[in-house]
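CORE FACILITY INTAKE
Project code: CF-77B
Contact: R.S. (postdoc)
Sample description: multi-component assembly, two entities in total
Requested service: structural model of the whole complex
Turnaround: standard
Below are the sequence entries exactly as provided by the requester. Do not edit them.
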Amino acid sequence: MTTTDLLLLGVLGALALTGGVLVFTLDSMARVTFSLLASLACAGGMVTVLGLPYLGVVIVLMMVMEMVIMAVFMIAYMMNPAGLMPMSMLHNKRGSLVISAVAFAALVVGIFGVSWPRRTGARPKDTTFQVGMSLMGRQMLTMVTLGFVLLATMVGATVLATHRGRYDRFGDGLDQRPANDPAGGGVGR
Amino acid sequence: MTEAGAWWTLLAAPAMLLALAGLAAAGHAVLAARDAGRPVGPAAMVRPFTGVPRALLAQPRRLPAPDVLLWRAGVITVPVAAVLSTLVIPFGGVTVADLSVGVVWFNAMEVLTWAGLWLAGWGPDAAFPLVGGYRFLAQGLAYELPLMFALISAATGAQSLRVGDIATSQQGLWYAVWMPVAFIVYLAGVLAFSFLGPFAYPAGRDLAGGVMSETSGADRLVLRAGRWLWLAAGAAMAVPLFLGGGAGPGMPAWAWQAVKTLLVLAALVLALRRLPMIRADRYVEFAWVVLIPLTIVQVLVPALVDLNR
């Protein structure tokens, strides 16, 4: 690692921590969400500096989408109507302090307790291929299983959340066409 | 082959993008003048730019309780992301930043528009911009996945995420020819992330301008410029992704690339004037039921070709 890389790593790390602190000190749902996004984007930058550009850029890409969608749901479901009023992000202070202290201690012990392996061989020029091979090579079964579990969770959650089923859409005999939908779609099913 | 550009390309790329965006806006104004029966000439061409000095000097509109920080951040994000996205596009064999993950970079910058437009809608604390911001997210959920699969098609065909490699791997046959679905979906995506024409839903006239309705002065200028900058960036990216980059007979690479980019931009401007605006709730079903399966099958084609190579 060059000095520039170390410097970048330090700056991005400090910015990520600042974003993380702001998440708990700001009082607007929108600002909180976007400081979390800034923090995660800095984490993506750190991963890029560490030599994994694909994972770093994908972290930024996915986190922007996720945080924006999260903002919509957080604002919709917060106890404070529409998240417009100033509010505190701190709940269950004692419990969360204990949990975060234990997690922090465990991570620090992990960092110093694990015997990290030494690098063998030269560093690959383009790490994207190596990431792909290690995820999709020996771990293919894990990834496929994970994919199906995620998809099943999403479909299941949507089915549980919606109050309308096929009998509402197509009638008791499932023969009613076009379907009785509250909002028409684009392909006219 | 592409090489990383010198420091001055960092200034040249945004200037070229701005010129392209200006051309698109001027072309759009000329077509509007023709449709309205006004004389078509230089006056019609400069019409969209006559408001620029006034916008820069104008007194900004004051609102009761805006979140100015988030609002500004959102408005600025849109054009800045458009400029950043062009850093990975090779022009005549030179790229500002020849990233090994250029396609993903372009995609990430494009997704930043989601955050930018939602913030631009949230910031003013007014109903119409807020609805406009939410509309863009609904539209984003519809156009984003097909667009990603279209990008993946080109990357799979070249077996590389480097934009220069994708351009050079189209020796002989453009991806637009044998991946037409991906090409069309990509162009639709360009109109969608520049929220113009059929995808002007977040800034729709039915919503008094939606996400743009409360912006004024320089903010409004920046946000409007962001739309055209994104259109120009999308057109510029289409050339290395699907139209063989700078390859062509008789002319140098930069000339071919400029010609192709201008043609794509002209086609996009014509399309955005011809097509009616589509509501996100209608487009989302079309996108998920028709476009996503089609683009997944489209990705399968270059994957099979690669396996048989």
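Facility notes:
- Residues 3-307 of chain B form one domain.
- The beta strands of chain B are 3-4, 94-95.
Invoice: internal transfer
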